[in-house]
Every structure is written in structure tokens, then in C-alpha cells.
Amino acid sequence: MNRRTFLGALTGGFLAAPLAAEAQPVGKVWTIGFLGAPLSVVGSLFQAFEQQLRDLGYVKGRNIEIEYRSDDGRAESIPALAAELVRLRVDVIVASLTERALVAKKATMTIPIVVVNAGDPVASGLVASLARPGGNVTGLSRNNAEHTGKNLELLMAAVPSVSRVAVLSNPTNPLFQTMIRGTTNAADKLHLRLTIVEARARAELDGAFAAMLREHAGAVLVLGDGMFWGARGQIAELALARRLPSMFMNSEHVEVGGLLSYGANSVEPYRRAAGYVDKILKGARPADLPIEDPTKLDLTINLKTARALGLTIPQSLLLRADQVIE
């Protein structure tokens, strides 16, 4: 397991950070612990985080170091990695996605935690409220659970003849029930029939898509999930091979062959997370830093995939798109 990726040479000792950090002393080297997916999967996102830190004046080897820990997509390894960062007494922990942030929160009540792309921070128990998080967690939300209704609407606009939609979901996701409930409510309003199909790991995806065909689904909605994001190429290929129009919550799925996506930009939250780290290192308390929602949601359409499926995307939908892939 690739549990440790050192980014830069360690030039200073580790100091414990209280929730309200003191003014930065001369020569202080802050240490950030980052809990995330393999860099081979999320390298460009992490690079955006690093670049924003540089723009804010943090230089590795001079006043900052980063300890990156990857769970390699195995949820069972997250607790040990979070405990390791706590033992290292890092000054801030940055955790991507709700599940990693929940584990980090369980591992420490004192080290500040910045979550990136939390699905629903309140419903999951990460924070008390968006405006006043309380405790040691703050960061950025994606609100995937609230967007599923809009995703279904856009999917129906692209393929209005579909009456049954498969919903690909991961039951190990902390927001599984919340997202399913939101999707079901939206489907009722649209008079759609849903088939809930589960996959806990990449090895289960083939079987999941086979189940969609057995249930006579005419399209698939893929709910937001870290494992699905990492397997986006495989999922896009499976959907196309089974001639299922596909809707996602991240444009990266569409860039590798999915049909449609509607959701927040994936890179921007990582840039904004660096701003949270900066504020905390300068003395802000996570409890007082409001959770930020996405500032913009983008509609992305892949016309190449549409042609392969024999679909004609309505002009009205194309005019609404933020990105059209030819």
C-alpha cells in the first residue's frame, strides 16, 4: 500500500496546533497532513491546492511541508492513515470527501480539519451548521444530495423517451441514504421509475451494469462518490457499451466518454481549500469559518458520445451547456 508520499524535504520539527493558531513565528515551518486518493488519480486536483498555497506565500522547504497519505481507494485503511497524521502532530489536516473527513474527525478533536467536497456536512455529522460549523472541521461542500433532482431533469431533457432510470450508488458512502432519498423524491415529481443498483468497488461495476439491463433501464444516473470518480473511465465505457445514456455530477466523467454532467467544478474546491488552510495558520478557528457551497454549477455535454448512442441533443439543452465536447 502506498501509504506515504513525502512532498519536499522536512526542514522543521512538528509542533502541535491548537484550534486557534498563534501568530506565525519567524522560521516556523507549518506541516499540513493531506488525506486523499492516490496522486495518480487526483494529481491535477492536488496540484491546484499546492499552486494556491504558493500564491499565498507558502513555499515547501521554507515555511511549509506536506505529508500526503493515500488510502489507495480502500476505505478500511483510512483510520490508520488519519491516526498516523495525528501522531505526526501536523498543524492542519486536509481531507478530501466526506468519508475521509469523518474518520479524521474521529481521530482528533484538536487538530483543525479542512474538508474538500463534503457531500452534506450537516447531514453526515461533520459540522453543526454551515454558517457556524463548531468543533474542529470546516471546508467546502458539494451538496450532491441537493443536486440529484436537477441532474434527473437534465437527463430527461436529453432523452425524454426514457421512463426507467438506473441509479448507480455506493452503499458505503456516508451520504448514500440522503442521496437516494433526494433522487427518489425528484423521480416521483418527474414520473420516472428508478432502479437502484449498488457497487461497493470497481470489481462490482460490471455486474451492476448487467443488472441495469436486466431491469430494462433506459439511462443511468451515477451518484457522486469517490470510488466512482476514480473509476470514471471504466463507468463511461460500460455505459456506452450497453448503450445507456449516462448522467454524472462531475465533468471529468464526460471528458472520458460520459454523456452529461451537472455539478461543481472539481478543481476549484482544492484551490479554495488552500485559502482555508491559510486562514487557520494565521489564527482563525475552524468553528468560526463557514462551510462554503459551490459558487457555480456547470452543464457538460459530450456530443461524440451522443452520436455513438444515436441521440440528438436538443438545441435548447446545448445552448444551456457550459462545455460541449465534440
Question: Can you give a write-up of this model?
Answer:
- This protein is of the alpha/beta class and 326 residues long.
- The chain folds into two domains: 5-142 and 266-288, Response regulator (Rossmann fold, 3-Layer(aba) Sandwich); 144-265 and 297-325, Response regulator (Rossmann fold, 3-Layer(aba) Sandwich), CATH 3.40.50.2300.
- 38% of the residues lie in helices and 20% in strands.
- The protein is built from twelve helices and 13 strands.
- It has helices spanning 39-55, 78-87, 98-107, 144-158, 176-190, 205-214, 226-230, 232-241, 251-255, 268-281, 303-308, 315-320; strands at residues 5-7, 30-36, 64-70, 92-96, 113-118, 137-141, 164-169, 193-198, 219-222, 246-248, 260-264, 297-302, 323-325.
- Strands 8-7-9-10-11-12-13 form a seven-stranded mixed β-sheet, sandwiched between helices.
- Helix 9 links the parallel strand 10 and strand 11.
- Helix 1 (39-55) crosses helix 10 (268-281), helix 2 (78-87) crosses helix 3 (98-107) and helix 4 (144-158) runs parallel beside helix 5 (176-190).
- The longest helix has 17 residues, at 39-55.
- The protein is elongated, with a radius of gyration of 20 Å.
- The model is unreliable at 1-24 (pLDDT under 50).
| Lateral arrangement of strands in the main beta sheet | 8-7-9-10-11-12-13
What fraction of residues sit in β-strands?
A: 15-25%
Structural class: alpha/beta
CATH 4th-level superfamily of the largest domain: Response regulator
Query: From the coordinates shown, what is the CATH architecture of the largest domain?
Result: 3-Layer(aba) Sandwich
Low-confidence spans: pLDDT under 50, at least 5 residues? Answer: 1-24
| Biggest sheet overview | 7 strands, mixed
Estimate percent helicity: 25-40%
Rg for CA atoms: 20 Å
Order of helices and strands: EEHEHEHEEHEHEHEHHEHEHEHHE
Assigned CATH class of the largest domain: Alpha Beta
Shape: elongated
Give the integer mean of the pLDDT values.
Answer: 89
Q: What is the tally of helical segments? A: 12
What's the β-strand tally? Answer: 13
Distance between the termini: 39 Å
